[in-house]
From TrEMBL:
Domain of life where this protein originates: Bacteria
Organism: Roseivirga spongicola
Name this protein carries in UniProt: PorZ N-terminal beta-propeller domain-containing protein
Ranges where the PorZ N-terminal beta-propeller domain occurs: 35-193
Signal peptide: none
């Protein structure tokens, strides 16, 4: 087995990098020069001559994510993308043309496209709304066949076949056929002939030896105008491809070659859990799209296979991004979405590689991975039902809860809801709906200690945050009262914070994240906005306590916004992820908006932000959404006490360049004065940590003239200085 693999590339300042998962490939199409493969949320291309791989994403100007179907224009070069929301892109070497007619159509029905069929100058888009016909010459949608179900009810169309003067359709309720004659109204369901109603059909094709259609694991053939049962396979059929005298048939577990006289298995998954989704013969190789093993290339009759994939996490649905050193970890479960996916992902900023790890113990996979920490270069993972484990990069794991000590499993589950670490090297763990609900674990001697507070709401802890003085902040399940229980196991003091004034004054009792900034303020994200506590050391001192909320544009910052996660960057600026409104970046105090990224003004794949993590050396912000992960490289990086390896780029600056000029390697939070060669001040800039940007404009916001400009950089006290030169052409 050989691998063709492309790893992540370095990202420019203020640039974006996609981090989609390429593990599960759903479909493939063959162009003249490239193969195109679609995952759930993105596309990649394989150069048929060189075998090189490249990404197609919103970063390089696609208009959407979540792919429904792929197709090709008659030229064999222009890729057609039908998205799950009804949007359509036509992608050629020279341009990307968008058609949003279906996307913009107002309906409560799903608009997902499921297949694309090319017929001369007409392109047929089949999907949940029915069939949409796009005419190439008129560059518009010319027909739409909706509500083709019995009695005119909505009916999902999975694939269409054009043969002579007729159109056939594989649908969720049988097979349909209608005449393409100009005098036939195909928008009227009465003009469609129905066969085998009650059966859901996924595919329909025409070969030199007949028509075939697939329903679940059954293959049907059309003879003398009637559809009859032909063959049953051992697993559901996922795709049919006609090769004239042969048919490639893929089921969930095997690929078969069907001729007029035989049915031969040419590839199977050997019970490894891999699901086959699609198959394609490009004349030289057979390509198999799978869940689990990305895109495989087969040579008929040979045992050797090749795997083609790009670097990325194990899943597009990743939670709880956590930074430890230069590594960011993602897990595939969260308290509100437990699943048995037994893997987690690690992104290493030093070598810019993703590593996907499948942990197991005594040969059994570990699922419901809800949290991760790294301590002394060891990885510890929390499985909601199976407990705490120490694991390595190979996935070999050791259970750390024994029957002799520590938490107790009830009904085959520990209900381990979160873990974190303290400055003394202990791991703190919460156990949901348990009388003993908070424990500390000492990895040096594998010992557990019950540290449960007395407050009844602590029983329903979903997350733990440890304050700068060691106080434990326990986020409480909103379904059990919500809010925060703060306690200190040494002083035995505790306090419950909620939305009531004087008792915390939180915007909401639904607490989603708690973070500490560089001023030792504790920021709390809730379903109704953001708040912060300026003195976390005094939380347990008693007295009235109400959280502060920044004021932005004469109102409470992000009031009524569902905040999902908080990130603090090296400039102490605040990043806020939201459930439906993208991601916001505010100044240190929260009073100045710097960026607000949504799907409409950025490559974000979704406005539903699940989590974020900031790597301070590069300034890269990893953002996970419900439709995949993406990174934005901000201009805030961790600073040092002196200038180190100062770089200015681009330099020289071309006349056509309109982006930001980046100056990095500066002393922490340097003050920069930019002058012309005569010493006239052009611009003053302050670095965010060790990085500053200049837009090439002067104090009056006019673009500077061609020439040489000097950058004088100095530390806050003026003792550490540096001079750089920028050439504007």
């Amino acid at each position: 087995m050989c691998f063709q693999h492309v790893k992540a590339q370095n990202t420019p300042v203020l640039g974006w990098r996609s981090n989609f998962s390429y593990t599960d490939v759903k479909s493939i199409v063959k162009g003249n020069s490239s193969l195109y493969a679609a995952t759930e949320n993105t596309i990649f291309a394989i150069d048929r001559a060189e075998g090189s791989l490249s990404k197609l994403t919103k970063i390089n100007d696609l208009n959407d994510v979540s792919v429904g179907a792929l197709g090709l224009m008659p030229d064999g070069e222009t890729l057609i993308i039908g998205y799950q929301n009804g949007n359509i892109d036509f992608v050629s070497d020279s341009e990307i043309k968008n058609l949003s007619t279906v996307k913009d159509f107002e309906t409560t029905q799903s608009k997902q496209f499921r297949s694309i069929t090319n017929n001369s100058r007409d392109i047929y888009f089949a999907g949940d709304l029915g069939v949409v016909v796009y005419n190439i010459d008129r560059d518009e949608i010319t027909e739409a066949y909706q509500n083709l179900g019995q009695e005119g009810k909505p009916l999902s169309i999975n694939q269409v076949l054009i043969y002579n003067d007729s159109i056939f359709a594989a649908t969720a309720d049988g097979l349909l056929a209608a005449s393409l004659a100009s005098n036939i109204n195909r928008q009227d369901f009465n003009n469609w002939e129905r066969s085998l109603p009650g059966l859901a059909f996924s595919n329909i094709i025409q070969t030199n030896f007949g028509f075939f259609a697939a329903s679940d694991s059954d293959l049907f053939k059309r003879e003398n105008g009637n559809w009859i049962f032909y063959q049953n396979l051992s697993s559901p059929i996922t795709h049919l491809e006609s090769l004239g005298n042969e048919v490639l048939v893929s089921s969930e577990t095997q690929v078969l070659n069907l001729t007029e006289s035989s049915l031969e298995s040419i590839y199977n998954t050997e019970g490894d859990g891999t699901r086959i989704n699609h198959v394609l013969n490009d004349g030289s190789f057979i390509w198999v799209a799978t869940d689990g093993l990305s895109l495989q290339r087969l040579i008929k009759g040979a045992s050797e296979t090749g795997i083609y994939t790009l670097d990325g996490p194990t899943s597009d649905l990743s939670y709880n991004a956590e930074l430890f050193g230069s590594k960011i970890y993602l897990n595939t479960s969260t308290f509100s979405d437990l699943n048995e996916e037994n893997s987690f992902s690690l992104y290493n900023h030093e070598d810019r590689n993703w590593l996907n790890i499948k942990p197991s113990t005594t040969g059994e996979p570990i699922g419901q991975i809800i949290d991760l920490v790294q301590l002394n270069d060891e990885i510890y993972l929390a499985s909601y039902d199976q407990g705490l484990f120490k694991t390595n990069l190979a996935g070999n794991s050791e259970a750390l809860i024994s029957s002799n000590s520590g938490p107790v499993s009830i009904n085959s589950s520990y209900n381990l809801s979160s873990i974190t670490t303290d400055e003394e090297g202990l791991i703190w763990a919460s156990f949901y709906d348990r009388e003993s609900n908070v424990f500390s674990f000492d990895p040096s001697n594998n010992s557990w200690e019950n540290q449960s507070p007395s407050h009844p709401f602590a029983r329903y802890t979903t997350d733990i945050f440890i304050g700068p003085n060691g106080d434990k902040w326990l986020s409480v399940d909103p379904n059990e009262g919500g809010g925060i229980v703060v306690y200190n196991e040494t002083s035995n003091r505790e306090r419950y914070l909620n939305l009531n004034g004087g008792q915390g004054g939180l915007p909401s009792n639904v607490v989603t994240d708690i973070e500490l900034d560089q001023d030792f303020f504790v920021w709390v994200a809730t379903s109704q906005g953001i708040a912060f506590f300026t003195n976390p050391y005094g939380i347990l001192e008693g007295g009235s306590l109400t959280a502060s909320v920044p004021i932005f544009e004469n109102r409470l910052l992000l009031r009524n916004e569902y905040i999902t996660d908080i990130g603090i960057d090296p400039a102490n600026r605040k990043w806020f992820g939201t459930k439906s409104n993208g991601i916001w970046l505010f100044s240190e105090t929260g009073e100045e908006l710097i960026y607000h990224f949504t799907i409409n003004n950025s490559p974000l794949p979704s406005n539903n932000i699940l989590s974020l993590a900031i790597e301070p050396v590069s300034g890269e912000v990893l953002i996970t959404t419900d439709k995949g992960a993406i990174s934005f490289r901000s201009d805030a990086t961790i600073g040092t006490d002196e200038h180190q390896n100062v770089k200015v780029y681009p330099n020289p600056v071309a006349p056509s360049y309109t982006g930001q000029i980046v100056i990095e390697g500066l002393v922490n939070n340097a003050q920069l004065k930019i002058t012309d060669v005569s010493g006239k001040l052009v611009k003053e800039v302050r670095a965010n940590g060790s990085t500053a940007i200049w837009n090439g404009r002067d104090l009056n916001n006019a673009r500077v003239k061609s020439g040489v400009y000097l950058v004088f950089s100095a530390s806050q006290d003026g003792l550490e200085t540096y001079v750089a030169k920028i050439v504007i052409i």
